[in-house]
Amino acid sequence: MRKIVLLFCVVAFCLSAHTVWAEKVLRLTLQLPATHHLGVNVQSFADEVTKNTNGEIKVEIYPSAQLYKDKEVPQAVSSGAVEMGVAALTRFVGTIPAVDLFYVPFLFADEEAVKKAVAKGSSVRGPIDEAVLKTGARILWWQAYGGAVFLSNDFALQSPDDLKNRKVRVFSKTLGALVEAAGGAATSISGSEQFLAYQRGTVDVGITGVTAVQKRKLYQVMNTLTATKSMVDIEFVVLINEKVWQELTDQQRQVLETAAARVEKELRDKMGQLEADAFAFVKEKMKVVELTDAEMKEWQKLAEPVVQEYIKNAGPLGQQLVDAARKL
After folding, report:
1. What is the C-alpha separation between 98 and 82, in angstroms, rounded?
2. pLDDT tens digits for 301-311?
3. Does the pTM of the predicted model rise above 0.85?
4. Domain tally for the chain?
5. Cβ-count burial of 309 within 10 angstroms (0-12 exposed, 13-18 middle, 19+ buried)?
6. CATH number of domain containing 133
7. Counting beta carbons within 10 angstroms of the beta carbon of residue 209, is it exposed (0 to 12), middle (13 to 18) or buried (19 or more)?
């Protein structure tokens, strides 16, 4: 009898040890609040992965830059310091200048052109995914963030002249070129640091997405918003360390890919409504200014040399992507 009990204990211990060993935790660093649509998007992915791997894989989400700031995410994921991360696509610009394509002002005529460009395997997205993979991080899916808006206090950015001698928060080198072309001073500031930067007067103007104005409560420190009518398209990407990816089984990778494809399409399809809802919210909190057609032409004229500067900085890949984007 004692032998049977001992055998039972050994079997139970082995099963318990196997269960612990089988569960793989993937930590995911997110700079935005969990309530932001990017946070909701990754949580939906995490839930599906846990369910469809029967708990073998658990995705732990660390929102609001608890682990890493936006600009630190690409290196953190590539090095394996963290298994997964969400970052603005432009954060790869130091190693892949061509990723700034989506921040070339007015390159994409409308949302339909953007959807074609970001489709998996497209002539625009395909080369970017391949270039990022060479850094040691794999793009699992792209996250729609929306267009950019200007934020300011007690004045509206209606003309390029309104940027003269102003310090402006930007999130890409190419956007910085637009600001400098107008006579402003561009300052790169992470999304999670915006609130304090505006509150302290570190910058006079901010460029960000309208959904961030709502979720980050930026309306508490800026009182005027200028809608720019698709000046640029902001894209985020969800990354996984390539070594970690290769250690997964074929079945596990399939689960992750399926979940990624679902949440990517889901978010892209509802982005228009999310932005509309955010605009409706901020109109109750801030003065919102819509640019006229004549004012838009001023900004578009200012942006023309920026395209050439982007190509100069991004090299052959940049030229390839611009050509592909224009064909859309």
Report:
1. 25
2. 999 899 999 99
3. no
4. 1
5. middle
6. 3.40.190.170
7. buried
